[in-house]
């Protein structure tokens, strides 16, 4: 029985590792973003215009947009450290630049 628990524990840990490191290429829609940051729609778009939040990406429709979840998580991670607007703007610029560079290489990962 101990061997069974050990294998399941290892499997569970491996699944968590994969999720945290490789499977976060997800898109968050506005309701998720509002929940994540606890901000209103207007404040979110204000922060995007101030370049302290990354801009959304097109999802292919005329108006459908979403945000790259790992970019949002990077912003939250920096906010937790007490970063000011200048530091947030620098991070957002890096994220957007990476997005553009990867788009050129057709390898956004």
In short:
With 109 residues, this protein is mainly alpha-helical. It has one domain. It is 65% helix and 7% strand.
Give your account of this protein's structure:
The chain has one domain. It is globular. It has 109 residues and is mainly α. Strand 2 and strand 3 form a beta hairpin. The N terminus is likely disordered. Helix 4 packs antiparallel against helix 5. It has five helices and three strands. It has a three-stranded antiparallel beta sheet. Helices cover 65% and strands 7% of the residues.
Offer a few descriptive terms:
109 residues; 3 strands; mainly alpha; three-stranded antiparallel β-sheet; disordered N terminus; 5 helices
Percent of residues in helices comes to: 55-70%
Gyration radius, to the nearest Å? 17 Å
Total count of domains: 1
- Write down the overall mean pLDDT: 82
Query: How many helices?
Result: 5
Secondary structure elements and their pairing?
Elements (H helix, E strand, L loop, with lengths): L1 H21 L4 E2 L1 H8 L3 H9 L7 E2 L6 E4 H12 L4 H21 L4
Antiparallel strand pairs: 1-3, 2-3
Helix pairs in contact: 4-5
């Amino acid at each position: 029985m101990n061997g069974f628990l050990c294998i399941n524990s290892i499997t569970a840990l491996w699944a968590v590792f994969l999720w945290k490191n490789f499977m976060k290429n997800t898109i968050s829609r506005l309701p998720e973003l509002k929940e994540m940051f606890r901000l209103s729609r207007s404040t979110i778009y204000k922060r995007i215009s101030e370049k302290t939040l990354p801009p959304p990406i097109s999802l292919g429709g005329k108006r459908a947009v979403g945000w790259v979840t790992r970019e949002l998580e990077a912003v939250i991670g920096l906010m937790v450290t007490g970063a000011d607007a200048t530091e947030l703007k620098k991070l957002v610029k890096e994220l957007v630049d990476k997005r553009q560079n990867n788009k050129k290489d057709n390898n956004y990962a």
